[in-house]
Amino acid sequence: MTTLTPVLTANWDRPDSFTLNGYGEYKAAKKALGMDQDAVIQAVKDSGLRGRGGAGFPTGMKWGFIPQGDGKPHYLVVNADESEPGTCKDIPLMMANPHSLVEGVIITSYAIRANQAFIYVRGEVLHVIRRLHAAVREAYEAGYLGKDIFGSGYDLELVVHAGAGAYICGEETALLDSLEGYRGQPRLKPPFPAVAGLYACPTVINNVESIASVPSIIANGADWFAGMGTEKSTGFGIFSLSGHVTRPGQYEAPLGITLRELLDMAGGIRAGHRLKFWTPGGSSTPIFTDEHLDVPLDFESVGAKGSMLGTRALQIFDETTCVVRAVMRWTEFYAHESCGKCTPCREGTYWLKQVLIRLEKGQGTEDDLTTITDIADNILGRSFCALGDGATSPIHSSVKYFRDEYLKHFEIGGCPFDHAPSTVWGNA
Ligand SMILES: Cc1cc2nc3c(=O)[nH]c(=O)nc-3n(C[C@H](O)[C@H](O)[C@H](O)COP(=O)(O)O)c2cc1C
Ligand code: SF4
């Protein structure tokens, strides 16, 4: 499996890729609006599409949870908050191909019987917000949004809403609170958003890439999509290679491709260096090492090896990187972004940060390794939302694979990489 499968990224090279002219007519939306709503849901179920926002929940099944004939308004909310360290696929997708998202919004809203949709976009990315506004305006002008779309009698309004720059607002229920005008903090589940979501009404929340994949499924058929990827992780996805790679960037490929294959296409690790560790799906997914180069990047295979596919944010670190420093930096992020609602995460991330700063400076002791593992054990599974669990991933996995590197710090009373930044360090 060494080929790329550009679908979402196919027209990114066109100078006008972000305009309606560069994207083309909304043929898939037109086709979908001529279908029965349940047939649209069934097509997405049959395709095997799983959520591209991290957890991999089957998209068609999520849509099927929306109660019908309940007399309440239904909503679609697109999660475009993308704030996880390393994750960088939705923002370029919305910059280069916003119409695939808008067309996906129309098809999804129609299927779940929603007449109002929202795109909740990360507040810092003003350029993306402007581009989304322009795409939505073009779609309204073409008659693809608003009243009686394609003469089908179906009406849809779409609002682009900018968040205020908090990682926790990517968590789907915190996002809903933020969208309603409250402070963004996770809600207790159940009830799940499909039953009581935005304004206590049935709501589907999906990731940008999930929704943008829908037009291609409707246009080409469920079998076409299911024919790519693996049996349980079907289709294609955007793999974002960043860090110490010769050609970092977005590589759209079938799920199940390996890092070795992706690195071959990306020109390998930067010249003269070798792979030390990497994240398969952003900083919340346990790190891998060079022994995992041939793990198929699908939900099941990555899980079987002790990590998660997450958002396919492949952050690559070579032997010049101090793993303790990388983990300290990620932990500082989690401590900063913890919303404070629950004690294990609020207190735990704070103390993890303090101990890691000490360890990185070479001022720790072997007991500190037990302390960070204990703190992480008390966060994992005891936090109110997945932010807390995610904060423990770098801790547990780095101690597992690089214990010797932690020990070396207090043996020499400092960071070995400060003294000799290019020293080649073993993988423990
Ligand atoms: C702290 C935190 C941040 C998250 N950030 C995002 C995000 O930026 N984008 C996203 O799609 N999902 C994010 N998620 C996952 C969402 O809660 C949710 O699972 C996802 O939007 C569902 O979409 P999908 O089924 O299409 O993957 C985050 C979860 C947590 C716990
Ligand atoms: S786990 Fe962290 S981010 Fe999530 S509710 Fe608790 S304090 Fe807030």
What's a concise summary of this model?
Helix 3 packs across helix 6 and helix 5 crosses helix 6. The two termini are 31 Å apart. By secondary structure, the protein is of the alpha/beta class.
* Oligomerization: single chain
- The tally of structural domains comes to 3
Instruction: Report the CATH architecture of the largest domain.
Output: 3-Layer(aba) Sandwich
Low-confidence stretches: 420-428
The biggest beta sheet is recorded as: 5 strands, mixed
Q: Let me know the CATH homologous superfamily of the largest domain.
A: NADH-ubiquinone oxidoreductase 51kDa subunit
Order of helices and strands: HHHHEHHEHEEHEHHEEHEEHEHHHHH
The helix-and-strand class reads alpha/beta
Estimate the mean pLDDT confidence.
Answer: 96
Ligands, deduplicated: flavin mononucleotide, iron/sulfur cluster
| Helical segment count | 17
* Total beta strands: 10
How much helical structure, as a percent, in the residues? 40-55%
CATH class placement of the largest domain? Alpha Beta
Family: Belongs to the complex I 51 kDa subunit family.
Catalytic activity: a quinone + NADH + 5 H(+)(in) = a quinol + NAD(+) + 4 H(+)(out)
GO biological process, one term: cellular respiration
Domain NADH-ubiquinone oxidoreductase 51kDa subunit iron-sulphur binding: 324-369
Describe the structure.
The protein folds into three domains: 20-224, 3-Layer(aba) Sandwich (Rossmann fold), CATH 3.40.50; 236-318, Ubiquitin-like (UB roll), CATH 3.10.20.600; 323-425, NADH-ubiquinone oxidoreductase 51kDa subunit, iron-sulphur binding domain (de novo design (two linked rop proteins)), CATH 1.20.1440.230. With 428 residues, the protein is of the alpha/beta class. It has helices at residues 20-23, 27-33, 37-47, 59-64, 90-96, 98-111, 126-141, 172-179, 208-220, 222-226, 259-265, 299-304, 323-337, 343-360, 366-379, 386-412, 416-419; strands spanning 75-80, 116-121, 146-149, 154-162, 203-207, 236-243, 249-254, 275-279, 288-289, 313-318. It is globular. Helix 15 runs antiparallel to helix 16 (386-412). The relative contact order is 0.12. Strand 3 (146-149) and strand 4 (154-162) form a beta hairpin. The strands form two sheets. It has a five-stranded mixed beta sheet. The protein has 17 helices and ten strands. The site of flavin mononucleotide has 22 residues, from strand 5 and helix 16.
